[in-house]
Design a protein that fits this description.
heterodimer; A: alpha/beta; 5-stranded mixed β-sheet; 3-stranded parallel β-sheet; 16% strand; globular; B: mainly alpha; 6% strand; Solute-binding_3/MltF_N (chain A); Amino acid ABC transporter substrate-binding protein (chain A); Bact_solute-bind_prot3 (chain A); signal (chain A)
Chain lengths: 340, 409
């Protein structure tokens, strides 16, 4: 009988505690917390991987840091949450992370059905195949009967099934949870082929002991626009992330770099769009609910081009050319709406 | 003069709910029940409200839509255009397959290790102690990964079998051990009398018939022994009952063997036992086998030593003492915990994703959940599945337990 009294009391206490939880906007949450929770991959060299000292570094990490700098003024005020292909959406939907910057493909169903909001594209990619050179394969259409390592729960998994079905050839999938596992299985010869986004393949290959022993097949079998995303329905927060990404892209287009941003932000210059971007003219920052110099802080880590070159550009081990990811003025697809 | 009157009928007062011990316990239980119901109702409405706020709803329509992904191990027909529901069925069958294999293997291992741990031989006894302690005290996930990693690292890839002077070769030209799995010859029936799975049903029916006939044969021998004291030899008759119909059936149905053969990237033909299945099966079997060994040891030690001594004084050999006297009595102690071990194997098989084995947690709870985003629906279905399986195993094993437990009359 004593037990039932205790149990009843616990129940009432639990209900009271649960009822007191209220929610505010993500922007306010982040400001109050003083830290941005940003979801990244569990480790993909060049895009998001912790270095020897445990500091996260990479192309996707650059986006997280820019948002943290814009909101909190400190690019280091980020709590990186490693997520797998399977856990990423649950982590975002449940509020464990404020935003996800993790080579995630913008698809209809994720945007509409899963109730997420893709704020833009930070890397235009496509799915490719990697095979060991001594296998002597030169085209993905020769892969009939091959064993393919594939990360589960990704769009690449669905594209893979479609590609082999439409070409009338068979394959055997080996489902894998993370990129590191896939790399280990592939190198052990447990699968003939590894398939994921071409950028991911290049990044994975760069970490091999003998990168030259593996080739990327010429076929790119899908469109994979990768971009950061936030939860549906919190438009203020979505705007902050979207326009931080746009600020990085616009800055490159306008020639604002981490080197000259301080000087340009010192006083209003000749170019009105640079002035509006850097807060020396107009009140764009106020409209976002941020300081006037939010973009200046975001650009401290470099503009889009600088982040690209530093992490995955041609002079890095990953060695990706700009290709589709060049500015629209240079024949690429990068195009930010104007800051006006 | 006094008159007898009935004692005054005490009327029910509200305060008795708290003050009267007859009612007080009911009062508190009732309050707790109301509180519990409110809590569940609150959590439920909270869920519905949050889902509505996020613009989501609970719907199982996705089960009918094409899954879009492939599964490497399937016991029934399945391709990427099949529905999510069919993908779940494939996963369920894979779960049941690995659970069944692991239960059988773990029982054999466990009984052997449990008996040997009580051996008089010091070396055998200590070896078994090391096995039991090592496997019981390391998480099963670690064992799964260890076995899988060792397999992929030690065994050669299919590429090693290629060329004029291959680095690896098939055992007896029939079995290929590779880091992707083991390839074995598969029986095939060519006469075409029965279609597909029909052949297997015929074989199964013949085996069941053989089982009943041999049991009848043994019972008849028992009767003869009781009547005359002489036991007729049943061994040869039983062997004939098992094998003659089987061989005849195989010959009639045109049994041939389909050997695995290196073709393109992989071995083709025969049966493939994937590395992921082997790793999961072995890890579950040896891990749970260690627990079963302890159950068996406890069961045997629960039998009074006098039983052994009495049997020995009759002139029985140690092996027969164990089989005829000790183990039958020990079963009533062994079976109940054994049921939980079978349940553990089934539930632990959900660690399959660690090695990429596509069980129900991998298909419905993994890829389907992820591709459709229907987390609540998928997890509810998963819970229902594991609940049904666990209760079924428990029910069947309890029937068996009732059959073998000590009969008290």
């Amino acid at each position: 009988m004593k037990k039932s009294v205790i149990f009843g009391a616990l129940t009432v206490a639990g209900m009271a505690a649960a009822a007191s939880v209220a929610s505010a906007g993500t922007l306010d949450d982040v400001k109050a917390r003083g830290k941005l929770n940003c979801g990244v991959t569990t480790g993909l060299v060049g895009f998001a991987a912790p270095d020897a000292n445990g500091n996260w570094d990479g192309f996707d990490v650059g986006v997280c840091r820019a948002v943290a700098a814009a909101v909190l003024g400190d690019p280091a005020a980020v709590e990186f949450v490693p997520t797998t292909g399977k856990t990423r959406f649950t982590a975002l939907a449940s509020g464990e992370i404020d935003m996800l910057a993790r080579n995630t493909t913008w698809t209809f169903s994720r945007d509409v059905d899963l109730k997420f909001e893709f704020v833009g594209v930070n890397y235009y990619d496509g799915q490719g195949f990697m095979v060991p050179k001594d296998l002597g394969v030169s085209s993905a259409k020769d892969l009939d009967g091959a064993t393919v390592c594939i990360q589960t729960g990704t769009t690449t998994e669905l594209n893979l099934a479609d590609f082999f079905r439409s070409n009338g050839i068979s394959y055997e999938p080996v489902p894998i949870e993370t990129n590191a596992e896939a790399q280990q299985q592939y190198l052990a010869g447990a699968c003939d082929v590894y398939t994921t986004d071409a950028s991911g393949l290049a990044a994975t290959r760069a970490a091999f002991e003998d990168p030259a022993g593996h080739v990327l097949l010429p076929e790119i079998v899908s469109k994979e626009p990768l971009g950061p995303l936030v939860r549906h329905g919190d438009n203020e927060w979505g705007d902050v992330v979207r326009w931080t990404l746009n600020a990085l892209i616009t800055a490159e287009e306008l020639g604002v770099t981490s080197a000259n941003v301080g000087e340009l932000a010192g006083a209003a210059g000749d170019n009105p769009e640079v002035n509006r971007l850097l807060g020396t003219e107009g009140n764009l920052g106020e409209m976002l609910g941020l300081d006037a110099d939010w973009a200046v802080k975001a650009l401290a880590g470099g503009n889009y081009g600088e982040i690209f070159e530093k992490n995955i550009g041609e002079n890095t081990p990953v060695g990706l050319a700009r290709g589709l990811n060049a500015q629209w003025t240079e024949g690429g697809l990068l195009y930010s709406p104007p800051f006006r | 003069m006094t008159t007898m009157t009935d004692p005054p009928q005490e009327s029910f007062r509200l305060s008795m709910l708290l003050n009267d011990t007859r009612y007080r316990s009911y009062t508190f239980q009732f309050i707790a029940l109301i509180a519990l119901i409110s809590l569940i109702a609150y959590l439920g409405s909270n869920l519905v409200q949050n889902l509505r706020a996020a613009g989501l709803n609970i719907s199982y329509e996705f089960l009918g839509e094409p899954a879009g992904y492939d599964i490497n191990q399937r016991l029934i027909e399945y391709d990427s255009q099949s529905s999510h529901w069919r993908a779940s069925i494939v996963g369920i069958l894979n779960t049941l397959l690995v659970a069944f294999l692991a239960c059988v293997t773990a029982t054999i291992l466990g009984v052997a290790a449990g008996v040997l741990r009580l051996s008089n031989n010091w070396l055998v006894r200590k070896l078994m102690a090391v096995y039991v302690e090592a496997f019981r005290n390391v998480p099963v996930l670690i064992w799964i990964i260890i076995i899988f990693t060792v397999m992929t690292a030690v065994l050669p890839g299919p590429r090693a079998f290629r060329g004029d002077d291959p680095a690896a070769s098939m055992v007896l030209d029939m079995f290929a051990f590779t880091n992707r799995g083991v390839y074995v010859p598969a029986p095939e029936f060519t006469s075409g009398i029965f279609q597909g799975a029909g052949n297997w049903l015929v074989i199964l029916a013949s085996l069941v018939a053989s089982l009943f006939i041999t049991r009848w044969n043994v019972r008849r021998a028992d009767q003869v022994q009781e009547a005359t004291g002489q036991r007729p030899n049943t061994l040869w008759a039983n062997l004939a009952i098992w094998f003659v119909p089987l061989v005849a059936l195989c010959w009639i149905m045109g049994l041939t063997w389909n050997y695995p053969e290196l073709k393109g990237f992989n071995f083709a033909g025969g049966w493939t036992i994937r590395g992921s299945l082997i790793a999961l099966w072995f890890a579950l079997a040896i891990y749970t086998g260690a627990f079963i060994a302890e159950n068996v040891r406890a069961g045997i030690q629960a039998i009074s030593k006098g039983q052994t001594e009495a049997a020995a004084s009759l002139g029985l050999r140690p092996g027969r003492i164990m089989n005829l006297v000790i183990l039958p009595q020990a079963l009533r102690v062994i079976i109940p915990p054994l049921i939980s071990q079978y349940l553990n194997i089934t539930k632990n098989s959900s660690l399959a994703i660690a090695v990429g084995y596509m069980d129900i947690t991998g298909t419905l709870g993994g890829i389907t959940l992820n591709q459709t985003g229907r987390a609540i629906e998928c997890v509810l279905l998963l819970m229902l599945f594991y609940l049904i399986i666990s209760l079924s195993i428990s029910a069947v094993m309890n029937i068996y337990n009732n059959a073998v437990k000590l009969k008290e009359r």
